[in-house]
Amino acid sequence: MSDLYEILEVDSSATSVEIKRAYRKLALRYHPDKVTEEERETAELKFKEISQAYEILIEEDKRKEYDIYGTTDGRGGRPEYEEFNGNPFDNFYGGGAQNFEQEDFYNFFNGMNGGPPGGAPRSAQRKPRTDDAELDVTVTLEDLFKGKIIKSTSTRNIICTTCKGSGAKKNAVMKTCGICEGSGTVRKIRRVGPGLVTQDYVECSTCHGVGKIYRSKDTCKKCTGKRVIEETKILEFEIPKGSEGGEKVVLKGESDEYPGKETGDIVLKFECEPHKVFTRKGDDLYIKYKISLVEALSGFSKVVLKHLDGRGIKISTPTGKVIRPGDFIKIKYEGMPVKKDSSKSSWFGGNSADKRGDLYIEMDIEFPKDNWYLEKNDITKIKNLLPNELQSKRDIEKQTIDKGSLPEANIEVFSDFTIARANALPEYTEKKKEEQGHHFYEGDEYSSYGRAGPGAQPECAQQ
Ligand SMILES: [Zn+2]
Ligand SMILES: [Zn+2]
C-alpha cells in the first residue's frame, strides 16, 4: 500500500480540514466525468485510491490505527506470540526515537505493574552495554622495558551525528509505538508444557526497544535509519614500561556505540615473548654468564651484555676479587622499571621517581679440561701459587682421619673412578612408610629381591 498521506498530497500532521480540502481538490481533478476518454481508466483507479485514503484518514480512529500500524486491518496491542515472528510494518516504519532516555522506559513500567520487566527492582537494573572488543598482541621484553605505544585502526559504529541516534529526520513526527505502547518491550507468551504458558518481556521488534516510531519517508539519510554510522580512527594503546605479559590496556568506551546502551570497551591483551638472554623475575632481570676459571680467580673487565635499551654493560672486577661457583653479580637498579601505580598520584609522593629492579648475573665458571697443562711443571707452578689448605677449621677437623687408627695395610687406593655429574645421578623414588610393611608379604616382591642381590653392588676397580 502506498502512503495514504502521499496519495492525498498532505503532510502526516495535516488536520482533518486540510485532509478534506485536499481530497476535494484531487477528487475534482480525477473524477471520471471530468477527464477525457483516454484518461478515464487511469483516472478511475486514481479516484478509487484517493477515496480510500480519504475514508481512512478522515476518521479519527482509523487514522490513528493507520499511523501506528501502517494498516487498518485491526492488529491491536496484543501480546506478541512466539509464532508471530518478523515485523509486518518494517517496510513502512523504521524503528527509532528521538533522544530516547532509558529513564522514560523504567518510569513507564514503574507506573504500570510496580516494576520493570523481569521483576528486578529498578536500582538493580544495569544499563545494557555494547560488547567489548578484544585485541591480542605479543610484545618483546624490550617493549616492556621501554614502554610501548601500539597503534591500531578501529572501525566501529558511533551514534549517527545527523539524527543523534533517532534514525529519523529532525522534524519527523515521532509516534508512540503501538505494539509496545511506548514501553519498548512486549510480553511474549511461551508454551512451556501442555496447557502451560509463561510470559517473558522481550524487546519490541517494531520500534527496536525505543517505544517510538516514525514514517519511512522521515528516515535519516545519513544512517538510513540504522541510528549508527561507521567511524574509522586510529587508537593508541599505551603499554606502560614495567608492565608484565598477560596484562591489559583498556580503552574505555571505544567499542561500538548504540543509542540507549553504554558503550563497551576495547581491551588490548598483551603477552611477552620469551627473551633469548634475559629471564624476568618480578622486577628483576637474570642472565647466565660463563667465565673461565682464570677469570674467576684473576678477575676480568669486559662487556658482558647488551641491555634491553641497547646499552652495553661492562663489568670490571676489582683486583683480587674471586668469583665462586654459585655466585651472582648483582647490579642494583639495572632490572625492569617498576610499573607506576596509576591510582597513586605522583603529586603526593606516590611513584614520582623511576624505580627499577636489579640485574643478577649468574656466574657459570668453566673449569679447564683434563690434561690442561702444557708442561707437567705447570701443575707444580699452580700448586705453589694457589693456597693449598682449606680455609675453614671445622672442615679441616671434620676431614682429618687419625692415622693411628688406620694401619697402612688397611688402606685401599682408588684412582680409576668415574665422575658423575649432578644431573646424571640415578633417580630414587622414596618409599612411603606405610607401604614398607607390605613388602615381605607380596609375592612379586620376593622375586625382585632375588634380582637385586650381588649385581646391585657398586663396581669399583681396585689397584
Ligand atoms: Zn541518522
Ligand atoms: Zn515498540
TrEMBL record:
Residue ranges of region Disordered?
111-131, 429-463
Q: What's the protein name?
A: Mitochondrial protein import protein MAS5
Where the record annotates domain CR-type, the positions are: 147-232
Q: Does the keyword Lipid metabolism apply?
A: no
Does the keyword Metal-binding belong to this entry? yes
| Organism for this UniProt entry | [Candida] railenensis
Q: Name one GO molecular function term.
A: zinc ion binding
Specify the J domain's residue ranges.
Answer: 3-70
Q: Which key words tag this protein in UniProt?
A: Chaperone, Metal-binding, Repeat, Zinc, Zinc-finger
Chain positions of all zinc fingers (CR-type): 147-232
Q: Specify the superkingdom.
A: Eukaryota
Q: Which GO terms describe its biological process?
A: protein folding; response to heat
Upper taxonomic lineage: Eukaryota, Fungi, Dikarya, Ascomycota, Saccharomycotina
Pfam families the record matches: DnaJ, DnaJ_C, DnaJ_CXXCXGXG
State where composition is biased (Basic and acidic residues).
429-442
